[in-house]
Amino acid sequence: MDWSWAIEGVNNDVPRTMGPECENYMSNERRWTEAVIVSLGCLWILRWASKRADPIYLPCASKLNQPHTTGRLLLMLLMTFVFGIEMGFKFANKSVIFVLNPCHIQTLVQIYILAAKPSKATVALFRIQMNNLNGPLLAFIFPEVESRTLPFEQATYWLQHALLYIVPVYIIRNGIYEVEDIYDFNWVTIGVMIMLIYHFVILNAISIASGVNLNHMLCAAVTDPFEGQNYRIAAVIHESILCPILNKVTVLLYSNKQTMKSNLLRKHTYNQNTSTIINDNNLSKDKLLYHQHYELTEKTTTEGTPSQQQQQHLPTLNVTEECIVKQRKHNISEENDIDIRIQEQHQTSKLLDDVENERELLKNSSTTAKCNMSATKVD
C-alpha cells in the first residue's frame, strides 16, 4: 500500500523529526524492552485502579435530555472547524501521520464529549482526558512550529492547543459532566496509565516502523531537559507527577463549589457505610439492609408468639425505596438530585441504626418472655 500521502512530507529539515540521528538515538532492542516493561506495569496498575474507582453517578433523566446550550454548540463548532483546518494542512503537507500525536486524539475526544449526551461512557472519557492537560501546557512552553510554513498554520497550532484547555474548563464550570472527588486519585491513575500505554504500545510501534519521531518516541527533543538514553523513563516519571497536578489544580480553580461540597459529603457518607457492604455478594447498602431486615423478621416469626410477631414486624425497605423514587421524580435540577442522593445515604444509615435497635429490643423481649415462662413453671 502506498503511504506517501501520510509520510512523504515528513523530512529531517527540522532536527530530530526523522532520519538516522533519531533512529540511532537508542537501539530498537531497548525501545521494545522499555515498551514491554512499562506496558505490563501500566496494565496491572490500570486493573488495580479500575476496581477501586468510585461509580459514576448521572443526573435525572430530564437533566440528561436537555438540549445543548448555545455556548456549548459554538465551542463544538469552533473545535471542529480548527481540527478540520489542521487536517487540511496535514494532507497538504503529506504529513497525516502526525494526526496520531496525543493532542489530535484529545481534540477528537473533546469534540465527541461536546456533541454527545451525558452518559457513563462520556463521563469516563471526560475524566480520562482530564489527565492529558500536560499536552497543551508543554506545547506552549516548548513549541514546535518550525515545520509549519503554510499561511496561518502556526496560528492554528496555538489556537488548537488553547482550546484543548478551554474546553475542559468550560465543561467543569458549567457542570456538564461531573468530575470525581478531589481526593480520589483512581481516575487520575486510570487516565495516566491509558496515556502511557498509548505511547509505549501504539506510538512506539508506529515510530519504529515508519522512522517518524511521533511525540518523541524515537529520540528526545532538542529542548528536552532530560535528554539522554533514559529520557523516556524520565518522561514516565515526571509526566506521572505533572498530569495529576494539572488535573486537580484545574478542578480546584474552575469547579462549581457546590458540586465539590456535595461530592465530598457523598464520599464521606460512602466511606462511613462501606463496612456494611457484603463484598462477596456485591450487595449495595440498601439491599444489605433489606436482607438484614428479612433475617430478623424470620427469627421473630419462629421464636415469638403470634401477637409478638405482629407487633415486632418491621416495615420493608421497598416502601422507602418507592418514596425515594417518587421524591426524585419531583426534583429535576442537578442540585436537588445531588441532595436526594445524600439524603438517601443518610436515610440508609439511619435505617441501619433502627434495625440494630430493633434487634436489641427483640433479644430483650425474648429473654423477658423466657424468664416469665420459667417463673410460671416454678409457680
UniProtKB/TrEMBL annotation:
Pfam families, per the entry: TMEM164
Protein name: Transmembrane protein 164
Spans traversing the lipid bilayer: 70-89, 155-173, 185-209
Keyword entries, A-Z: Membrane, Transmembrane, Transmembrane helix
InterPro entries per record: TMEM164
Keyword Ribonucleoprotein belongs to the record: no
